Amino acid sequence: MKTKNFTDKPRDITDRINKKPKICYSIEDFKDKNFDLLQEARQSLQKIDEVIIPPRDAKTFKVKFGNFFRIESVEGPQVGDLNLFQLDNLDEKFYSGKSRALYGTHLSVGDKMFSSFPYLRSLATITWDTLDWYGYDADGGSVHDVIGTRCDPYTSKLLSGNDYHYCCHSNLTRALVNEKNIDLKDAEKLVHDVLNVFMLTGFTNDTKQYFMKASPVREGDYLEFFAETDLLGVLSACPGGDCGSEHSSDNAKCYPLKVSIWSTDTKYLDKIKPSITSTYNRNHGLK
Questions:
Q1: Can you give the pTM of this predicted structure?
Q2: What single string gives the DSSP state of each residue in the chain?
Q3: pLDDT exceeding 70 applies to what percent of the chain?
Q4: pLDDT tens readout for residues 200-248
């Protein structure tokens, strides 16, 4: 936190501060050409599967290219932590930092979930968001953030001294162990920074610290995605419930979440091809 100044202001301070900001990554020429088609396709959705995520736990789900999936509040206000992988290659996983750099601190309709290096392609596109009405509030808060990493037992131990096993990091790890039948240590290495679905967060105006508020999500609200490649998803129903008070404990009221998988008429998808990985030659200046 930059709340204390230990150095003197330089004489040329007026030449060194308050410059006009420049957006790091302009995406104006990066518009999704498939977006209008996806909006048409979603009018013909038919549910083909669903998975219920129990409170303070996580489960996996699979989505084939061309299908849609929704994360839905089904009983009460509940936040979810989402990991995404390319189904056949778990090394290719959601890259929240790059998605944040491209789209901002919170994602919504039309934004894409990019994968890690060296792949860097869109895993999924957000096609509908029943909470997009929230926008940004007076504190700069909004929903569906790519700021927070996920609640985890290590930070909990650091700050409270307690061993708590149902943080989202642990939930996601257990779900991967159960799904892929892999070693616990290998599974934990695969867990990555999340999309905090429904979570209402921001940075404080004074100290710029990460904050959370009670989520505005209610029963029936959902966030919907289009799968741009075959996906393995892992979703944790956060122990913080609506994250209005605390997390990393059993104190908050928690509810299940539902993941539903939807197909659409293939006539809408004939012109849409799976996303492709980066074509960068990867010599990094050594050849």
A1: 0.96
A2: ------SPPPTTHHHHS-PPP--SS--GGG--TTHHHHHHHGGG-EEEEEEEE-TT-EEEEEE-TT-EEEEEE-SS---EEEEEEETTEEEEEB-HHHHHHHH-SB--TT-EEEBPTTT--EEEEEEEETTGGG---TTS-EEEESS-----HHHHHHHH----S-SHHHHHHHHHHHHH---HHHHHHH----EEEEEEEEE-TTT--EEEE-----TT-EEEEEESS-EEEEEEE-TTTTSSS--SSS-S----EEEEEEE--GGGTTT------------TT--
A3: 100
A4: 999 999 999 999 999 999 999 999 999 999 999 999 999 999 999 989 8
